[in-house]
Amino acid sequence: MNPRTRTLLLTPQEMAAADAAAARSGIDSSGLMERAGQAVAAAALRLYPLTLRYVVLCGPGNNGGDGYVAARALASAGAVVELFALGDPDELKGDARAAFDACPIPSRSVSQLTPKPGDAVIDAVFGAGLARTVPEELRQVIASVEAASVPVLAVDLPSGICGRRGIPLGAAFRASHTVTFMARKPGHLLMPGRSLCGDIEVVDIGIPWRIVEGCAGSVAANDPVLWRESLPSPDSASHKYRRGHLAVFSGGASHTGAARLSAAAGLAAGAGLVTVASPADAMPVNSGHLTAVMLREVEDLASMRAWLANAKLSAFVLGPGFGVGEKARDFVLGMEGRPLVLDADGITSFRDHRDRLFQAYAADEARLVLTPHDGEFGRLFPELAETGEMSKVEKTVAAARLAHAVVVYKGADTVIAAPDGRALINENAPPWLATAGSGDVLAGVIGALLANGLPAFEAAAAAVYLHGEAAARAGEGLTAETLVRHIRPLGRNGSVFHHRL
Question: Where is (6S)-NADPHX bound in this sequence (predicted)?
Answer without folding.
Answer: 62-66, 127-133, 156, 258, 321, 373, 440
